[in-house]
Amino acid sequence: MLTLFGDPTVWLPVVFAVLMGLSILIYVVLDGYDLGVGLLCARATAEEKDRMIASIGPFWDANETWLVLAVGLLLVAFPIAHGQILSTLYIPVVIMLVGLILRGVSFEFRAKVQVERQYLWNRSFFAGSLMTALAQGYMLGLYVMGLEQTVGTVIFACLTAVCLAAGYAFIGACWLIWRTEGALQRKAVVWAQRLLLLVVLGILAVSLASPLVSPRIFGRWFVVPEVLLLAPLPLLSIAIVTGLRLGLRHLPARGDAFSWAPFAAALGLFVLAFAGLAYSFYPYVVPERLTIYDAASAPESLLIILIGTLFVLPVIVAYTALSYWIFRGKARDLTYD
Amino acid sequence: MDLDPVILARIQFAANISFHILFPTITIALGWVLLGFKLAYQRSKDEKWMEAYRFWVKVFALSFAMGVVSGITMSFQFGTNWPGFMETVGNIAGPLLAYEVITAFFLEAVFIGIMLFGSRRVPNWLHTLATFLVAFGTTMSAFWILALNSWMHTPAGFELRDGVVHASDWMAIIFNPSLPYRLTHMLLASGLTVAFLITGLSAFRWLLGDRSAGLRAVLRTGLVMAAVLIPVQIFVGDLHGLNTLEHQPQKVAAMEGNWETQSRVPLLLFAIPDEEARENRFEIGIPYGASLILKHDTDGVVPGLNDFVGEHPPVAPVFFAFRVMVGIGLLMLAFSWCGVWLTRGGRQPHPWLARGLVAMTFSGWVATLSGWYVTEIGRQPWLVTGVLRTADAISTVPAPIIAGSLTLYLAIYGLLLTAYIGVLLHLSRKVARGEGLGPSADPAGRLTTVAAE
How large is the ipTM? Predict the structure, then answer.
């Protein structure tokens, strides 16, 4: 059974790398927009905060689960890499976890405490979102730098920290353009326009830095024919950014036309950036040190998970879609009844 | 300062898991209780059950969020602090954890959105179904976690190749020898925790003057639930102990504070175990008690700690934690049976009974934590019995960094626990004063009118 598709020690690690990458991508997009909404809350009035949080209330929990799945898959499929990556990134991981804790409980606490205390939980909601976003950006930067910690790589990681936070705030603003109306929606358009610049800067920084620090990555991009085959990635990104720059000026449009478009465009931009990163680092799971083949667990264990995943994943997608369908349209106030 | 990273990492893990376990302990059973309230309403059309649902669903949502965020912390700690764990037993721990995420986490996380906010957007049957799926998800999650935890106590269905564990029989791994006892014991512990939580907060509201019909119904539900579950729990606990005696005799020896392997061992009510002198001080015991309970024979031979020198857990914490757990269990028995009797036939609870129940509000937490310490400290010095020692699973993170993260976690956990209990009391006061249920309360004000009666 194991050898039905050829050597399982070759294809199983690839399958799990794809599953893990997919799970990280879904996490970044989904929790990205709700973390972004958390960041933008700092710029909103009390009433707008309620509406903004109502727009993500039914979703954030499931969004965050994709992170658990991604880390779970790393843990399961590449246990040695899991240990190496997470013990190197110990401090940012702790900061991220504290951020996730603060943020997650603030949703519930802010709706239940005395009115005078609400501002405290609003602040912790913002602080938690900020800590999480910055820590994840810092980890991304350090990962791109091959998990080396020198003055230069740390400065770079600080830059990516700010840029990823901006990226989350950007996709959060796009979500709000889609899911809110009136003054808040107009505000969100302005946020999205301003943040787009930082997003472009972030993508540029990672795209330039990764081939420069790694001759291997340089070699994977800048040779014929790869450079031609890969050209659609940067070209499509430029097209999307240009489209966003021009399009955002005309939003919100009459009859709320195209209010979904910026979110779709942001999604496209995230997918392209992620595809570029994935191509650069494959087949390494710890950059330049450990490939997915070296780090993979026993095939029997991976197969057990794969079978379960293949049955369960469509079900997860189905009920996630159901939830987005139930809570479709402009955000309304959330009530428990 | 000279800090030991192994000790620090253990304290940090213990702090994390102690904090985490508090909330699943509530949500596992509360999910089913909520489903019960909802079904009771559908059957009787009595609005009091819907009030109960609306109040307790808030407690559920808050506990659920606390459980989720602390659970995420747990999943990262395997990698940050215990890389040796996954490197050695990852082939077994990994799939069990993965199955928890894909079969339970997503189910809970998606349907809790519909359960909390969807009742006006979806048909009633779908809302009931969402409540059921959330309850089912939490229980499913408990099943996978306890399968892994039980396997760490009584490993089965594996073989060692080059020091790494490989799975050979998944059914034997999942349904390992201690799973049935551990799972049942934990589910009952959750039921008891919730029973005392709902009676405790209801008694608190009653003392504040709340006399609504719904309140009395919930109070009675909690009392009856506790009265039924506690004898079952005592029985299951006994079976669990016998199972532990079979697989981890050194743990039972520490629980009993028994040093020598001998017959006619007394059941110690109190003692201070002295591990250096390898004896107990200030012993008060019931003659033959331990032999009778463990072997069902006063002449039964009970294994002693001296057979396991260097291989048994620290005695005092296991010994005392076990007594705290059993003591609270007996208090639960007394309170629930008295409570059911004293509130029979529509009688109002006596103020002293109500005060006692308020004092017992979080007794389930204390009992669960003590039980958890008995079983987890009792497994030491092993992380996976006979396979992996705790000290061999540790990461190379320097002690000062762990000390820093530990301080941060402890501060956050202290703050959140205070806030959590504060909010439960605040919600209870608010509804007892008839002010509805907070910013997202029922706009029609039905609760207000009923609560003000």
Answer: 0.84
pLDDT of residue B445: 33
pLDDT of residue A3: 58
pLDDT exceeds cutoff 50 at B439: no
Taking CB atoms and an 8 Å cutoff, what residues of chain A touch B54?
336-337
Residues B20, A97: Cα–Cα separation, whole Å: 13
> Which pLDDT belongs to residue B230?
94
Per-residue pLDDT for B430 more than 90? no
Please enumerate, as own/partner, the contacts of A40-47 that have beta carbons within 8 Å and a separation of 24 or more: A40/A169, A40/A172, A40/A173, A40/A176, A40/A188, A40/A191, A41/A122, A41/A125, A41/A126, A41/A129, A42/A126, A43/A187, A43/A191, A44/A184, A44/A187
**For position A168, what pLDDT does the model report?**
94
Identify the residue among B13, B22, B66, B68 best suited for mutation to test binding to A, counting A beta carbons within 10 A and taking the highest: B68
Q: With an 8 Å Cβ cutoff, is A120 touching chain B?
A: no
Separation of alpha carbons B383 and B391, rounded Å: 8
A112/B contact by beta carbon, under 8 A? yes
Long-range contacts of B133-138 (CB under 8 A, 24+ apart): B133/B107, B133/B108, B134/B31, B134/B107, B134/B108, B135/B31, B135/B32, B135/B34, B135/B35, B136/B31, B136/B107, B137/B31, B137/B104, B137/B105, B137/B107, B137/B108, B137/B111, B138/B24, B138/B27, B138/B28, B138/B31, B138/B104, B138/B108
Among the partner-chain residues A59, A86, A312, the one whose CB lies closest to the CB of B113 is A59
pLDDT along chain A (337 residues), means of 10: 67 87 91 93 87 88 88 84 83 91 88 83 92 93 86 89 93 92 88 91 87 84 83 88 88 83 91 88 83 83 86 88 86 70
Q: Which residues of A touch B102 (CB under 8 A)?
A: 69, 308-309, 312-313, 316
